[in-house]
Amino acid sequence: MFSVGELVVYPAQGVGKVEKIEEQVVGGLTTRLYIVRILSNNVTLMVPVSNAENVGLRSVSDEKNGTRILDYLKDRSDFTGYSGQNWNRRYREYSDKLKSKDLKDVAYVLKELFLISKDKELSFGERRLLEQAMGLISMELSYALSVDQSQAKSKVEELFADVIVQQTKEENNKEKTD
Fold it and tell me: Fewer Cβ atoms within 10 Å of its own Cβ: the N or the C terminal residue of the chain?
């Protein structure tokens, strides 16, 4: 059970704060709800206390897990890439993983998309997923590692510096030919 003022993570939405716990009548039944405000966009969610675990509501990662996620992002040995999969199938798979309650699934999407972008240009949808994954990871890592979100994002970008440098060169070359 979470308490008022506690930071929590709601899958695909990110880090939020439990603002209150209240009872409301829903469908004729009295239901206890967590009222959670997502910090990145001020969206308010009402999550039934009895169903919080099923929807993936969880505590923010601690420093140990945050460090583990950075190590996971650094390790490229499990990179599967896009061989044999079309972008639509990858998009669905990645979208499902972004809704996971496991931060490692979100990190998987981020890593895969960064590494795929090293070999080919991402589709518009894939770029959106990359941005969403980066936002979710950097937000949670900022709380886990006690740094601000831009510092957490920089830590992640450092892990993929070779990819980002290559993309910048390709973009510059493309601009010169246009």
Answer: C
